[in-house]
Amino acid sequence: MNTSSLSNAALILEDGNIFFGKQIGISGETFGEIVFNTSMTGYQEIITDPSYSNQIITFTYPHIGNVGVNKNDCESNIVYANGIIIRDLSIVSSNYRSEGSLLTYLKKKKIIGISDIDTRKLTKIIRISGSQLGCIIAHKKIKISKTLQKLKQLSHSKKIDLVQIVSTKTQYTLNNKNFKINNIPTIKNIKKKSKTRIVVYDFGVKQNILKILINQKCHITVVPAQTSAKEAMKLLPNGIFLSNGPGDPRPCYYAINAIKSFLKINIPIFGICLGHQLLALANGAQITKMRFGHHGGNHPVKELCSNKVMITSQNHNFTVNPIDLPKSIEITHISLFDKSIQGLRIKDKNAFSFQGHPESSPGPHDALSLFENFITLVKSCNYNIANKGEKCQNVPI
Ligand SMILES: NC(=O)CC[C@H](N)C(=O)O
């Protein structure tokens, strides 16, 4: 198909809408679920967040690339997003921390993107129709009917468990030598005496979560998503952290089983985003897909016990269904945008979770105190802490 001389790329949506624009990144074709992110800053953290695996991100903020890219702002070494869609790519990277341009970075990471399209119009389409699949074609041979056919096939294909793809394949430990820890908000009220042993379930964990835990003097062991509770308990953890991650949490039966075991022995648990959804599933709640999800840095969330409102960073397409919520679950936070569940606590257990991103990166730090709550809970439970002369003992699971 012949497009205008300025266009060398197209975005084709499942519903037949087509946008012509300019290729950014490498040439080729890429498919994925189109989501829009409303953050005004933090494009590098967003594209490297493993939770965006298999998705194509539209940035509603019109100028992307202004501050370039740098090593420290990556949420992983891989760009997990399947593609990016922007209005204007900045040709100048103007920031003292910049180590290169976004364009060069996209090419290096072999990412396909499109610029110079009406992202406001695209966002309105997604808001009305709900999430849909799309394809960026970044070469001259744009074959619309063939692409539409492939999009139809994809929308009917079996959903894959993305967590197993992005999770670490091997267990590893971390300390503060592993990170150049700067720009990490410090939580003030934590006593930094003894190391707290945390097992982090990596469902697609963001680096900033690990940095914050390490900054709180935690000794961290990151384990693959499929690690059984028995294996994890051999590490004598004082607490379990359930990370964020991509896709639908419902196929992650292995993690749901492990969480059920952790709940039985009542070890402290904190879950973020996908981790929150898995904790809910382990307690018998239902998960549903949202119309177009929450992706942005300005989502108001109310803590129900205090009526305090915090502005939070969010990135999710699924949510805990409030209908027929099991009695064991207490809702602790709700979204002031759509009243969806944003936080929960398991009654009579040392387990709680948050749907948004208290680690931010990018986004506001209002919910950071949830990490403080976790560390305080872990310290007060003394799980796997030996008294003088005793050895740590695990409760058999
Ligand atoms: N950031 C996340 O952990 C996302 C969780 C889940 N994949 C969702 O889209 O709802």
Plain-language structure description:
It catalyses: hydrogencarbonate + L-glutamine + 2 ATP + H2O = carbamoyl phosphate + L-glutamate + 2 ADP + phosphate + 2 H(+); L-glutamine + H2O = L-glutamate + NH4(+). With 397 residues, the protein is of the alpha/beta class. The protein contains 10 helices and 19 strands. It is 23% helix and 30% strand. The longest helix is centred in the middle third of the chain and has 13 residues, at 144-156. Mean pLDDT is 92; it is low at 181-192. The strands form 3 sheets. The protein has a 10-stranded mixed sheet, sandwiched between helices. Strands 1-2-8-6-4-3-9 form a 7-stranded mixed beta barrel. Strands 5-7 form a two-stranded parallel ribbon. The radius of gyration is 21 Å and the shape is globular. The protein has 2 domains: 9-156, Carbamoyl-phosphate synthase small subunit, N-terminal domain (Glucose Oxidase, domain 1), CATH 3.50.30; 162-381, Class I glutamine amidotransferase (GATase) domain (Rossmann fold, 3-Layer(aba) Sandwich), CATH 3.40.50.880. Glutamine (GLN) is lined by residues 51, 244-247, 273-274, 315-318.
Mean pLDDT: 92
- Euclidean distance between termini CA atoms: 62 Å
Q: Percent range for helical residues? A: 10-25%
What would you call the quaternary organization?
A: single chain
Count all strands and give the number. 19
Protein name: Carbamoyl phosphate synthase small chain
Pathway: Amino-acid biosynthesis; L-arginine biosynthesis; carbamoyl phosphate from bicarbonate: step 1/1; Pyrimidine metabolism; UMP biosynthesis via de novo pathway; (S)-dihydroorotate from bicarbonate: step 1/3
Active site: 273, 357, 359
Binding site for L-glutamine: 51, 245, 247, 274, 277, 315, 318
